[in-house]
């Protein structure tokens, strides 16, 4: 053994360099005993002493030892759990991270991006949280991350008031009072004694026929049904413009009409405070429903979708609304019916209902000065009251499982019904006001049950303007 000792005092310190060389390597048994003793001693040291010991050993190491140390440290300190764990465990851990963190993790490596992008449950939940519908039948594992990224863009557009665009329909020469929208087509009825059918996507007028003054309109591919200020209802053929049926019997303007070809029934609500039920094909009045004490401004003929004591799924139900009340009537093969229930928001009739009414077979929703009222149709009990923010008096346009579409004199609003917060606003021009609510309407409403990346197209809102044009609010293409 050779020992060399050098003593220096450049900074009043003493450094001892010791070099030891072995004439021959230890036997395996002796080495294992030495290593065990060294390990036992190493465990007794403090963290600082352990660090100093390692520093000293590193200083004594050559290239072979340093290369070995570098290779093993990478494995010990940079363990890729997404690569090492079973895929099911990786997915479980990823569910605890928020979407933004997951997107950042996708940048770590191609392997991480592949695993995270394929975590379907994580991205489906992120989409649901944004109010998007989930189609469980989609098998593509990478599909839902792409959907989420599109959803983020659309929700940011809504938040920044950039999701919509506007257009106008010009063609009437007098006040447009009645509007009705279905399947990309908008029908308008005017005091110029005409009704027009428009293709919203192109802005082109498909049909224009001469009618009476229209207070309400509804239509299908073959026919147009109009309620008029002349106290009558009429049915018209689109292709010829001919009047195919005339319904006379009301003594006041007809503000709302609805019909069902399967039942061969037409219903109408009037300023004479009555609801009439007509045979659609013959024009015969089958029944007059009384009980309203104000103008009947809305009638809805709809199938019930829930079970109760008085109706079953598939039964046809008639709703009629006036300024204070909503009445529920059973409609079937037997036309003579009695009112099942009367709904209202104030016993003393001090609170008025807005003229818009939503009924999807499960819930009835109407707005008032107190907020949005939602009734459960199975029990007729109030299920929910949504107070309007900042004491604003917003009117209802559309109501779904996730979103509601509302408006006032100045803006169009979208409310997230899960939080009851307004998430988007769009300015409206000075449109023509109507106490009966027929001169403005919602367009496509499927997205109110949740966006899906394909239903955010087409018409959102339409209203008539003082210059006799129609102002349209449309979805802007999702960037």
From TrEMBL:
Presence of the UniProt keyword Magnesium in the record: no
The F-box domain, residue ranges: 79-126
Keyword field contains Repeat: yes
Sorted UniProt keywords: Acetylation, Repeat, Ubl conjugation pathway, WD repeat
One family name in Pfam for this protein: WD40
InterPro entries (alphabetical): F-box-like_dom_sf, F-box_dom, FBXW2, WD40/YVTN_repeat-like_dom_sf, WD40_PAC1, WD40_repeat_CS, WD40_repeat_dom_sf, WD40_rpt
Each WD repeat, start to end: 169-208, 247-288
Subunit-structure text: Directly interacts with SKP1 and CUL1.
Functional description taken from the UniProt entry: Substrate-recognition component of the SCF (SKP1-CUL1-F-box protein)-type E3 ubiquitin ligase complex.
Protein name: F-box/WD repeat-containing protein 2
Source organism of this protein record: Xenopus tropicalis
Taxonomic placement: Eukaryota, Metazoa, Chordata, Craniata, Vertebrata
Gene: fbxw2
């Amino acid at each position: 053994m050779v020992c060399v000792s050098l003593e220096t005092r450049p900074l009043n310190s003493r450094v001892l360099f010791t070099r030891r060389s072995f004439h021959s390597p230890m036997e395996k048994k002796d080495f294992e005993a030495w290593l065990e003793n060294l390990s036992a001693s190493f465990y007794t040291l403090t963290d600082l002493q352990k660090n100093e010991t390692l520093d000293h050993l590193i200083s004594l190491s050559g290239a072979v030892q340093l290369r070995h140390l570098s290779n093993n440290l990478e494995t010990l300190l940079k363990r890729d759990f997404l690569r090492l764990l079973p895929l099911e465990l990786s997915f479980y851990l990823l569910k605890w991270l928020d979407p933004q963190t997951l997107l950042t993790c996708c940048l770590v490596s191609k392997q991480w991006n592949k695993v995270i992008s394929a975590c379907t449950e994580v991205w489906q939940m992120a989409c649901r949280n944004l109010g998007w519908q989930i189609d469980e039948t989609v098998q593509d594992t990478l599909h839902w991350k792409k959907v989420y990224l599109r959803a983020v863009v659309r929700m940011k557009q809504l938040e920044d008031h950039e999701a919509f665009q506007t257009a106008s329909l010009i063609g009437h020469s007098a006040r447009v009072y009645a509007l009705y929208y279905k399947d990309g087509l908008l029908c308008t009825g005017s005091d110029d004694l005409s009704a027009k059918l428009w293709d919203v996507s192109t802005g082109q007028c498909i049909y224009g026929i001469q009618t009476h003054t229209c207070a309400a309109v509804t239509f299908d591919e073959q026919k147009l049904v109009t309620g008029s200020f002349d106290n009558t209802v009429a049915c018209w053929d689109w292709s010829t413009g001919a009047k195919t049926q005339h319904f006379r019997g009301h003594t006041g303007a007809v503000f709302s009409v609805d019909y069902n070809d399967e039942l061969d029934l037409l219903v109408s609500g009037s300023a004479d405070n009555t609801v009439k039920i007509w045979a659609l094909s013959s024009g015969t009045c089958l029944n007059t429903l009384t009980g309203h004490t104000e103008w009947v401004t809305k009638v809805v003929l709809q199938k019930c979708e829930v079970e109760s004591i008085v109706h079953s799924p598939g039964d046809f139900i008639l709703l009629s609304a006036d300024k204070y009340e909503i009445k529920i009537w059973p409609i079937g093969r037997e036309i003579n019916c009695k009112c099942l229930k009367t709904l209202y928001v104030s016993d003393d009739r001090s609170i008025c209902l807005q003229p818009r009414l939503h009924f999807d077979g499960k819930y009835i929703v109407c707005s008032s000065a107190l907020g949005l009222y939602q009734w459960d149709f199975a029990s007729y009990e109030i299920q929910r009251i949504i107070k309007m923010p900042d004491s604003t008096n917003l009117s209802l346009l559309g109501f779904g499982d996730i979103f509601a579409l509302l408006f006032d004199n100045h803006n169009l609003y979208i409310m997230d019904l899960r939080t009851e917060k307004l998430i988007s606003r769009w300015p409206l021009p000075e449109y023509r006001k109507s106490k009966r609510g027929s001169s403005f309407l919602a367009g496509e409403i499927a997205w109110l049950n949740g966006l899906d990346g394909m239903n955010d197209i087409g018409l959102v809102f339409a209203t008539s303007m003082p210059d006799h044009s129609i102002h349209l609010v449309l979805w802007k293409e999702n960037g």
